[in-house]
Design brief:
mainly alpha, 434 Repressor (Amino-terminal Domain), Serine Threonine Protein Phosphatase 5, Tetratricopeptide repeat, about 0% strand
């Protein structure tokens, strides 16, 4: 069978060989301007007769690895015999077929409506937001990057004026998800850049829902960066924007915990009282919480936040009740809704509440599931919270508490083994 080279397959060969455009032209012995025509977006130019032969020779001389990469992205004629001593890898075939379909779809982008592409992206971001709370961070980031590439391509191609608002909102939501992923991987600088981009998209789209959620996310990152005063102010600023009751519930919960962390008990207790006054029956979705998953603030998460705020306020009995209820809800709820990050942090709230009552034995029991947590289920915030528990423990050690040294040793061993590795399951940052 004689393979007919197209602009797309020629560029697929260049990619498989991992060559720059100029180097690829030199390899073929063709002018760079000729080769550059093939790389133009949506190019329909087919290589000429001489180029057809040169491309076939280049493919024949390529390494087996490069040939495999090439054929995995270019459809092969069905009459080409395949000789292999191994049974076909069905999983690999399925993945290659999906990749090839996406390549074909990209080539047909100019024939497809932008509305169809945006519907796919909205569905994909919904899927990622839901999977976020129980999926390893590396997988989440890979999916978000693919969505970002697709959305960038759509925004750079002609689209209907009516789709501009949807593109902008989706871009803002994508940046919010990437901000949380960045923060939970231990890169607050990138997280803040993502939030800045999300704020810009909120302004362009004139979306109060995006503004409110973005301010809440910024408040969380400020709280975890030891700026709880500013975190509380940022969350309170978010309450000024009309958004869903669920979004405002999140902002009030963040305000309560941040204010409590900064020592501002009146503001913290006021926020907790305002949470009690909210009427859940009056809630409606907005354009952010509609995505679900990480971009929701369910009752279990609210209970966990209450426990954290009450622990910081020194209301240890009530705090432990809330934290244990959140843990139980996560353990017995639907597996796809279980946030191991929130659950671990709730256990640390129970630990701190027990330490506040000099109950070292109870604190050891509460923190053990955290210290033995699978490394793939840890997030950066857990290590920060463990450090705070250790600070509480060392105070008891200095006071001569007989069992505090044992807990301090366990915490020191955990922190020494944790290391700087990226974390997973970042819903605790929501």
């Amino acid at each position: 069978m004689v393979f007919h080279w197209t602009a797309h397959s020629a560029m697929a060969l260049r990619s498989a060989l991992n060559l720059k455009l100029a180097d690829f032209a030199d390899l073929l012995g063709l002018s760079r301007s000729t080769v550059s025509h093939w790389s133009a977006p949506g190019s329909s130019a087919s290589p000429g007769l001489e180029a057809q032969e040169l491309l076939s020779i280049a493919l024949e001389r390529a390494s087996s690895e490069a040939q495999t990469r090439f054929w995995s992205t270019v459809a092969v004629g069905t009459d080409t015999p395949v000789v292999s001593g191994d049974a076909p890898d069905v999983g690999a075939q399925i993945q290659d077929a999906a990749a090839q379909s996406i390549t074909m779809a990209d080539e047909a982008m100019r024939l497809a409506s932008s509305a169809e592409q945006l519907t796919y992206l909205r569905d994909e971001l919904c899927r990622i937001a839901v999977a976020y709370v129980h999926t390893p961070l590396a997988d989440v980031v890979a999916d978000l990057r693919e969505a970002q590439k697709t959305l960038t391509a759509i925004s750079r191609t002609p689209h209907r004026p009516g789709d501009a608002q949807e593109i902008t909102v989706l871009s803002g939501v994508l940046c919010l998800l990437l901000a949380h992923a960045s923060q939970n991987s231990g890169d607050p600088k990138s997280a803040l850049r993502q939030l800045r981009a999300a704020s810009t998209f909120a302004t362009v789209a004139d979306s109060d829902a995006l503004r409110a959620w973005g301010l809440g996310s910024a408040a969380l990152m400020l709280e975890w960066s030891s700026r709880p005063n500013e975190a509380a102010r940022r969350a309170q600023a978010g309450l000024q924007h009309p958004a869903s009751l669920e979004s405002h519930r999140r902002l009030l919960a963040i305000t309560a915990r941040s204010a409590a962390r900064s020592g501002d008990a009146p503001t913290a207790r006021d926020a907790l009282a305002r949470l009690d006054d909210l009427n859940p029956a009056a809630d409606v979705d907005d354009e952010v919480v509609r995505f679900g998953g990480l971009l929701r603030f369910p009752e279990t998460k609210l209970t966990y936040y209450r426990g954290g705020a009450l622990t910081l306020l020194g209301d240890y009995d009530h705090a432990e009740t809330c934290a244990r209820r959140a843990i139980e809800d996560y353990e017995t709820g639907a597996p796809q809704d279980r946030s191991y990050g929130d659950e671990a942090l709730a256990r640390l709230d129970v630990t701190r509440a027990r330490l506040g009552q000099d109950d070292i034995t109870g604190a050891l029991a509460a923190i053990e599931p955290v210290l033995t947590l699978n490394p793939q289920l840890r997030i950066d915030q857990i290590d920060n919270a463990v450090r705070r528990v250790r600070a509480d423990t060392r105070i008891l050690t200095l006071r001569g508490h007989p069992d505090a040294a044992q807990l301090d040793d366990r915490l020191a061993g955990y922190l020494a083994a944790a290391g700087p590795m990226p974390r997973a399951l970042p819903s605790a940052g929501a």
